[in-house]
Specification:
The protein is α/β, with parallel strands linked by helices. The protein has three helices and 21 strands.
């Protein structure tokens, strides 16, 4: 009598062990424009004001604190808004904030620490250009962060400040209203510009937002 053949083992699809990025609590105005390939991650709330435009591949990361973006702001592609790394002495393991479970603080950090975080606040009409990184505690109305600039953790920028391309503002610095940070042949400089063009720049930024809202298809519903 021939032996009964053993049943073939069914192949099981390998389970993915890659954790998905955290989806933060979102408060989005009905007139906010968020591109499909924008990245919003973290555990703290992200609030986006009316008529704000978030470009493709822009990143808002609330892993280490909440983010509030005011009315009429523009966050350009490949820029990043939000604290990027856990601050020393805040508890837990330090690490780059990529919004993935198991990295840095993890999903229960708020409950463990039981404290409010300062996070990042952008005022009305703030423009964050391509490749810029903004970790500032506060950025005043009408300020412009140009391409590749970096504004460090805890920085407070006054209203109508301008940070020139590739300039760096060190952590916990404070810049008064109308400060311009720029480069010359001797390095990075600062000056106060009260030329009176700030209102004009705000109007131009407002028109820019109107144009971009027509050019950038919004997928805000995807992030809700």
């Amino acid at each position: 009598m021939s032996p009964t053949p053993l049943p073939a083992h069914s192949k099981r699809a390998p389970s993915s062990t890659t954790a998905q990025p955290k989806k933060p609590p979102l408060h989005i105005s009905p007139t906010t424009t968020i591109a499909d390939t924008a990245v919003l991650t973290g555990t703290y709330p992200i609030t986006l004001g009316a008529n704000t435009v978030i470009h493709p591949r822009a990143r808002l990361q609330s892993t280490y604190g909440p983010i509030t973006v005011g009315e009429g702001c523009v966050v350009w592609e490949k820029s990043c808004v939000g604290v990027q790394q856990q601050l020393a002495g805040s508890g837990g393991r330090e690490g780059r904030g990529d919004g993935v479970e198991g990295e840095g603080r993890g999903s229960d950090a708020r409950e463990e620490e039981g404290e409010e975080k300062e996070g990042v606040v952008l005022g009305r009409g703030v423009i964050v250009e391509a490749g810029a990184i903004v970790e500032a505690r506060g950025v005043g109305d009408g300020s412009l962060i140009e391409c590749g600039a970096r504004v460090g953790v805890g920085v407070v920028l006054g209203k109508h400040c301008k940070i020139s391309p590739l300039a760096t503002i060190p952590p916990h610095d404070t810049l008064p209203d109308f400060t311009v940070v720029y480069h010359d042949g001797n390095g990075q400089r600062r000056r106060i510009d009260r030329s009176g063009f700030q209102d004009v720049r705000m109007k131009v930024a407002g028109r820019q937002v109107e144009v971009l809202r027509g050019l950038v298809p919004s997928q805000a519903a995807k992030f809700r």
